[in-house]
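[User] Could I get a sequence and structure tokens?

[Assistant]
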Amino acid sequence: MTSAPEPLGLSGQPAQPDRVIADLRELAALTGGPEGARRVCWTPEWVAARDWLRGKLAQVYSSDGAPAQVEVDPAGNLWATLRGRSADAVVVGSHIDSVPNGGWLDGALGITGALEVLRQYSGVDLPVTLRLVDWADEEGARFGRSLFGSSAAAGTLDPDALRALRDRDGLLLPDVLAEHGVRIDRARDAGSQLARVAAYLELHIEQGPVLEEQGLAIGPVLGTFGVERHAIRFSGRTSHAGSAPRRLSVRRSAGSGGARERPPPRWRGHHGLLHD
């Protein structure tokens, strides 16, 4: 029984999935540890990952022999472009940032897969433009606000809603962005990058058991779940235990009130309750 032929690009060169796996392992060795990936956005590990990606992209060329054009937009998203005969673009990519102790495939699979696509078409006279994108701060792990770069490009980012966000060290998001060349008031200018996008494709690990259970290697995404974050504060009133009976409304326990409160049935996941 003969095996199926490997897919060919316009260059006639077969895809090299082993190279994608090697890239993933190399990136994990550079920016990971025993507990997982450490590429939280706007940190030295994330910068190191970006530098690693730039080094790989320097080995990809347009049909005229020039290196792929690499740029960072006003929201911090990284773009690599192979110009084609048409300015209409097919975009492939994902995000190289991670959550703390993240999985080695989350986001990185889409980036290394997109890198391999550009390698396949390196030096080829393309009918359309081919672009790779690495969305900045897709995870939002440091400041608790995900999809920063992609929402800026899509035009849904509200800078005023982010100005007061701080990380665990008390640093403000706008200040940290400025250290990386991003001005929060100009972030939405990244939308100009989407002007000629004809199609977008992102390879991503399922992060679930369904494909494996069904014996499938890949499947299209038909929908997704939105995420909302809410903080609920229960306020009480302190007084001496015993001599201040609750029937007189002198002493009210915030903890007891929070314990009696149940989230609506539609809520799932983690619930953060604040009490004082």
The two ends are 70 Å apart (CA to CA). Residues 17-31 form the longest helix (15 residues). The helical segments are 17-31, 44-57, 108-120, 148-154, 173-179, 210-214, 254-260. The CA atoms of residues 31 and 48 lie 7 Å apart.
